[in-house]
Write a structure and sequence with these properties.
Distance between the termini: 59 Å
Number of domains: 3
Radius of gyration: 32 Å
Strand content: 15-25%
Helix content: 40-55%
Number of helices: 12
CATH topology of the largest domain: D-Maltodextrin-Binding Protein, domain 2
Largest sheet: 9 strands, mixed
CATH class of the largest domain: Alpha Beta
Shape: rod-shaped
CATH architecture of the largest domain: 3-Layer(aba) Sandwich
Number of strands: 11
């Protein structure tokens, strides 16, 4: 037979109270309705569950066995409902974030810190990669959400949540550091420190120069903003980098932001998910927090 949860609830109440009347009061049912459910359960199982001893009742051996199992079943059902509620409300589960280098190092950690304080039981994983790798992780289902700059891509849903500025930097003693109104042509003639292929910053800068028919003079290719800043400090070239990555260097006067036409380039950091796929609850809660922060700013 198919046991119903209602039958098990009624049986457990009777077995716990050893009384049909007290079970009826607890369940807000009539005593005949309780008796009917117990009789239907016994018929379905084909074995007596309760013995009547005068005005008292007691569980048969089968009743004692069923009571243990039914209690366990109902407990697991309650746990399942609570677990689904926790997942639905983002109170548990996992959050897998992949972020491009700049935002992943300088922005996302503080966002995840705020999220963790609100949802301390959610397991968080962060991977920092370039744009190509970020896309791969997202499309492979190995990340729930990505954080990156604007990169229109079929199959991805992008929602801006924070503005960023790309600026041109150089050592404070660089000849251009004392200039105003530097042209793109002048900038293209300078040795440039560039990110590796696949970098969103590099792609944006190359497009800017290409739109003006210019070919920047590459001096060195580096895979991390930290390396670019160190090399720029030594006067080995100029570079385009996010202002978010420069707070310490600018405060210390170790680098200068150049006054170049078309700069700063204002772009948006985006929260990115796969179009047409259900975002896990923990990730949905993270996205909702970013959206609320933008709306409140």
């Amino acid at each position: 037979m198919d046991l119903s949860f209602h039958q098990l609830h009624v049986f457990v109440a009777v077995a716990r109270n050893l009384s049909f009347s007290r079970a009826a009061e607890e369940l807000l049912l009539t005593q005949p309705a309780v008796s009917m459910q117990i009789k239907a359960l016994e018929r379905g199982l084909g074995i007596p569950l309760i013995d009547h001893v005068g005005k008292r009742i007691q569980l048969t051996e089968a009743g004692q066995d069923l009571y243990v199992r039914a209690t366990r079943i109902l407990g697991l059902a309650t746990e399942a409902v609570e677990a689904m509620a926790d997942l639905r409300q983002g109170r548990r589960g996992r959050l897998r974030v992949v972020a491009t280098t700049t935002v992943g190092i300088y922005i996302v950690p503080s966002l995840l810190g705020a999220y963790h304080r609100r949802y301390p039981t959610v397991e968080i994983k962060l991977e920092v990669a370039n744009w190509e790798r970020t896309c791969e992780r997202l499309f492979a289902g190995e990340a729930d959400v990505a954080i990156a700059g604007p990169h229109p891509q079929p199959g991805l849903h992008m929602e801006p949540f924070m503005d960023d500025e790309l600026v041109v930097i150089a050592a404070p003693y660089h000849p251009l550091a004392l200039r105003q109104g530097i042209t793109l042509e002048e900038l293209a003639a300078e040795p440039m420190l560039v990110r590796e292929p696949g970098s969103g910053t590099r792609a944006g800068v190359e497009k800017l120069f290409a739109d003006r028919g210019l070919q920047p003079r590459r001096a060195m290719e580096l895979s991390r903003n930290g390396a670019i800043k160190q090399v720029a400090k030594e006067g080995l070239g100029v570079a385009v980098i996010s202002r978010a990555a420069l707070s310490l260097e600018l405060q210390a006067g170790a680098l200068s932001v150049l006054d170049v036409e078309c700069f700063p380039i204002v772009r948006a950091w985006n929260v990115i998910t796969r179009a047409g796929f259900t975002v896990p609850p923990a990730a949905a809660a993270f996205c909702a927090e970013l959206r609320a922060d933008r709306e409140g700013s």
